Amino acid sequence: MALHDRLAARLRPLHALMLAVFLAGAGTRLMDGARPLFAVLVGLFWLVIFQFTVGNVWGYAVEYRNAGGDWGDAAFVAPFAIAFLAGATLYTVSRNLGAAASAAFWVFVAATAVTAVVVNLLVGYREGDPDADGSQLAE
């Protein structure tokens, strides 16, 4: 099997995206005149940040789905909407894309935590309420 065929068989879309992120990070530094080793380190840093961010967001989505939720639920969409608004607002004020992206991510984390607590409290109260499923009404 040729090298190209082996790479194509192993290179999944996520790997291609990760390679693009690395090359973009390293390429921006090389175009700025940085040394190649520094450019590689910056590319790796971009890749780590990308994996951390995408991994956490994907983990949130998968765990929400595994818990029986639907990706169209308001409880699932709310942290994304709040994070988007926070990032867009900060970018509008500061014109700093890095700061806006960082703020959006951390607002997403905080909104996810608040949403999880609120949903768990509501579900806990519903499960403890004998009239929640209507079983007491039939008696």
TrEMBL record:
The keyword Transmembrane helix applies. The chain crosses the membrane at residues 12-31, 37-62, 74-93, 99-123. Keywords: Membrane, Transmembrane, Transmembrane helix. The keyword Transmembrane helix applies. This is DUF3147 family protein. It comes from Halobaculum roseum.
